[in-house]
Amino acid sequence: MMDNRLESPDIIERDSHGYLMFFENWNEDVAKVLAKEEDIKLSLEHWEVVYIVRNFYLEFNFSPTIRMLVKVIEQKHGKKCGNSRYLFRLFPKGPAKQATKIAGLPKPVQCL
């Protein structure tokens, strides 16, 4: 029997703020639905940040702060992309909020 939760991203369990209840339910189709709800059309730059956020969470078991995210991106791509302006251009309502939601992570503690 097939697991329909992964095939129908619009019916995956979420909390009252729209974050996935279960990290394991995430896939790129789910990310596209979440991004659309945030009025974001995912570009290669968005995907890169989404995967950086997911990998950070897998390694450290918490979502990166904006400062941490900036450092990781700066190490990979230099100062041109490793700054908060770049992240806010991609995620205008806040990288901590939008990138973590699209990446399928729990709502960050520091997010109101």
UniProtKB/TrEMBL annotation:
<dbReference type="InterPro" id="IPR042072">
    <property type="entry name" value="DsrC-like_C"/>
</dbReference>
<comment type="similarity">
    <text>Belongs to the dsrC/tusE family.</text>
</comment>
<dbReference type="InterPro" id="IPR007453">
    <property type="entry name" value="DsrC/TusE"/>
</dbReference>
<dbReference type="InterPro" id="IPR025526">
    <property type="entry name" value="DsrC-like_dom_sf"/>
</dbReference>
<dbReference type="InterPro" id="IPR043163">
    <property type="entry name" value="DsrC-like_N"/>
</dbReference>
<keyword id="KW-0963">Cytoplasm</keyword>
<feature type="active site" description="Cysteine persulfide intermediate">
    <location>
        <position position="111"/>
    </location>
</feature>
<keyword id="KW-0808">Transferase</keyword>
<dbReference type="GO" id="GO:0002143">
    <property type="term" value="P:tRNA wobble position uridine thiolation"/>
</dbReference>
<dbReference type="GO" id="GO:0097163">
    <property type="term" value="F:sulfur carrier activity"/>
</dbReference>
<dbReference type="GO" id="GO:0016740">
    <property type="term" value="F:transferase activity"/>
</dbReference>
<protein>
    <recommendedName>
        <fullName>Sulfurtransferase</fullName>
        <ecNumber>2.8.1.-</ecNumber>
    </recommendedName>
</protein>
<comment type="subunit">
    <text>Interacts with the TusBCD complex. Interacts with MnmA.</text>
</comment>
<comment type="function">
    <text>Part of a sulfur-relay system required for 2-thiolation of 5-methylaminomethyl-2-thiouridine (mnm(5)s(2)U) at tRNA wobble positions. Could accept sulfur from TusD.</text>
</comment>
<dbReference type="GO" id="GO:0005737">
    <property type="term" value="C:cytoplasm"/>
</dbReference>
<dbReference type="Pfam" id="PF04358">
    <property type="entry name" value="DsrC"/>
</dbReference>
